[in-house]
Amino acid sequence: MQIIRNLNKIKNALPRLVLTIGNFDGMHLGHMAIINEIKKIAKEKNISSAILTFEPHPVTLFRPDRAKDFRINGLAQKLKIFKEQQIDYVIILPFNQNLANIEAYDFIQKILVKSLNVKSLVIGYDFIFGKNREGNFSLLEKESKNFDFARRFDLIEISALKKSQEIYSSSFIRKLLKEGKVVESNQFLGRNFMITGIVNEGRKLGRKLGFPTANLIAKTHIIKPKFGVYKTFTFIPHLNQKFPSITNFGIKPTVQDGEIPLYETHIPNFSQDLYGKKIEIEFLDFVREERKFASLEDLKRQIADDLGNC
Asked: Long-range contacts: 254-259, Cβ < 8 Å, 24+?
């Protein structure tokens, strides 16, 4: 997979591309329907598959008040999924005021046709683009026919994917995660919701209680699920192993009320030092809400019960 971050630095003309465009936050099953379509077309036409995406997410520019606690996955997770799907090219455009102000026609002419050599374009049912959000399927359909034969491109629109009348969307998945409904959110994602990070050294209170934890500080821009205890899997890349685990996400009201939200993961029967190591935590199910206990002994008994449920 080749990653392109600057259109001006493309040294050689790109091969013919079947392209899709979007933020792809969450990479849910609705997104996968689009990805599968570009892969199918690439194989049928013997051309390269490509994804055009943006960084940061446009919400950062248009709604900075909503940019925190928002994204389902970061760029690294998104690129990992693209690579797993064997996409040939990923174009990452910096989303800034200059890009937001580009006219829809110029976006088609200068980016899609001239820079990216698009021969087939696959878009979702709600795709809009360009200054003042003036670009849509109708405009693409009209303009695609105005180019000469060598520069003309096919256009395919993917309809909304639904589950029980609910459209697969990143906004709905965010709502589910905020409610602690990870089983349901995973069904819409088509995989387990996951957070990643470097293990921080904490107060080691869990170790004193007999339940050592690997602690990750919640990233500002990544969505925070409902505070509580979750059944999880923990993948440790440097060991290339995945372990059943239990994760508390919250502010530890029994011992440190008011702190920055923290993921505390306990892996039963695991004793290796993970400080400074990267881990990935997959959320499987919600066990209970976070709450304040009268004593550390009460907390210890509850953790033992939580492990029994998981």
From this structure: 254/292, 254/293, 254/296, 254/299, 255/203, 255/205, 255/296, 255/299, 256/203, 257/292
Clarify whether residues 152 and 51 are in a common domain. Answer: yes
Distance of CA 293 to the CA centre of its chain: 34
Per-residue pLDDT at 193 exceeds 80? yes
> Is the N-terminal amide bond of 56 cis, ω within 30° of 0?
yes
Please report the sign of the dihedral spanned by the C-alpha atoms of residue 302, residue 306, residue 308, residue 309. positive
How far, in Å, CA of 89 to CA of 73, rounded? 20
Alpha-carbon dihedral angle through residues 303, 305, 309, 310, given to the nearest 10 degrees: 30
Is-contact 183 287, C-beta < 8 A?
A: no
Residue 284 maps to a domain: yes
Give strand pairing partners of 205: none
Tens-digit pLDDT profile for residues 235-288? 999 999 999 999 999 986 555 555 788 999 999 988 888 999 999 999 999 999
47 and 136 inside one domain: yes
Do residue 139 and residue 185 come from a single domain?
Answer: no
Range of the domain at 36: 2-160
